[in-house]
Amino acid sequence: MKKKVTTSAKENPRELGYRMPAEWEEHDAVWIAWPHDPTTFPDRVEKVEQTYVRIVELIHESECVNLFVRDEHMREKAKNLFEGANVDLRRVCFFEFDYADVWFRDYGPIFVLNEHKKIAMVHWKFNSWGGKYRELLRDAQIPDVISRKMGLPRFEPGMVLEGGSIDVNGKGTLLTTEQCLLNKNRNPQLDKKEIQKCLSDYLGVKHFIWLKRGVEGDDTDGHIDDIARFVTPSTVICAYEEDTSDDNYPALKENYEILKRSVDQDGEKLRVVKLPTPGIVGDKGSRLPASYANFYISNKAVLVPVFGHKNDSKALSILQELFPDRKVHGVNCCDLAYGFGTIHCVTQQQPNSTK
Q1: Three-state SS at 192
Q2: Arithmetic mean of pLDDT, 102-131
Q3: Best label site of 133, 275, 295, 354, fewest CB within 10 Å?
Q4: How many of the other CB atoms lie within 10 Å of CB of 132?
């Protein structure tokens, strides 16, 4: 087992040559956790399990699936469902731990690579989205579990950060929102400059684009993965609402205008592509944060949440044009969205490495 990397002011991931790769760079695996909580998915757990089966089915063909389960019973249930869907269990690795919920993107580690493709992990602090769900705080232990299992070097910045709050182009630019990262329920002791310094030191980025707010119904305080994503080093998709009467219209228009004025790490203008929204998803009076931008980029496919809306096909067509070397698949996420997240929220990529 590798010795844990200790950090200091003069020995951070950036100075050791590490960076966070873009999501479209090659993966060894994806990390997810099996759904189980009826509080998260009221009357929908079995339907969400079927959504997971589809997600695993599409991803495992080109990268391994590292799947957390709570116990042996859950492991066997997942195996049985996978076998019924012709999932090759040799490409699924099970990890057992009594986790609380499924939002791996936010409580799991972020993996970084150095110039020799050696992999390490950054263990950010997780405070359940500003202390909203105290019963989920035990998920903050997940990076420890992974570190022990994999024996990877580990860096601990001591800063609260969820993976869904940032997106990178792999060349030095990071995209985020003021609503989330500057929120006093995360890191009240840090100002914007200090937050940028920490992100630079631990993710190897050097240029920042700050959008303003996220979509309605988002309990994460404006995560970027519902509103804007890099699809190439110089191209960003941006969720955009055409209906001026929709509550999301002002915030998404403002974000789009910021991106149109933005440049990359080399000072070059970005190409900004509008991505439609799926309208209002959820029960009457309770809008869910549904967005086509919450897709996952696997080695050979792009998994896009769809919701039975007229804009589903339009969003898939736009993304297929942007990912000509990958097959774009729509995955029905009407039930998964009741947990206030979809595909990107429940996945975390592990980049290809020499270990």
Answers
A1: helix
A2: 97
A3: 354
A4: 12
350 half-sphere exposure, CB direction, 13 A CA radius: 26
For residue 157, CA distances in Å to 11, 120, 234 come to 11, 13, 28
Phi-psi region of 90 (alpha: psi -120 to 50; beta: other; left: phi over 0): alpha
Rounded alpha-carbon distances, angstroms, from residue 195 to 52, 146, 219, 259: 34, 25, 21, 21
The structural domains of the chain, ordered by start, are 27-351 (3.75.10.10)
Q: Which two tokens stand for residue 132?
A: 């909203």
- Is the model's pLDDT at 5 over the cut of 80? no
pLDDT over 60 (residue 8): no
Please tell me the distance from the alpha carbon of residue 224 to that of residue 166, in angstroms, as a whole number. 6
Token representation of residue 208: 């920042």
Query: Which letter does DSSP use for residue 277 in this model?
Result: -
The answer to whether 252 and 241 have CB atoms below 8 angstroms apart is: yes
For residue 217 the two structure tokens come to 């119904």
Spell out the alpha helix ranges (H) of 85-166: 104-107, 128-131, 142-150
264 vs 282: CA distance, rounded Å:
36
CA pseudo-torsion sign 78, 83, 86, 87: positive
Q: Kindly state the DSSP code that residue 222 receives in the 8-state scheme.
A: S
pTM score of the predicted model: 0.95
Q: What is the pLDDT of residue 10?
A: 53
pLDDT averaged over the chain? Answer: 95
What does the pLDDT average to over 209-215?
97
- 230 — pLDDT class (breaks 50, 70, 90): very high
Cα distance between residue 95 and residue 264, in whole Å: 38
- Confidence bin at 27 (pLDDT 50/70/90): very high
Q: How many residues does the chain have?
A: 355
* Res. 2 pLDDT band, cuts 50 70 90: very low
- Of 123, 135, 50, give the one whose Cα is nearest residue 332: 50
Q: How do strand 301-306 and strand 327-332 relate by DSSP bridges? A: parallel
Q: At what angle do helices 45-59 and 72-84 cross, to 10 degrees?
A: 60
Active-site residues: which are they?
345
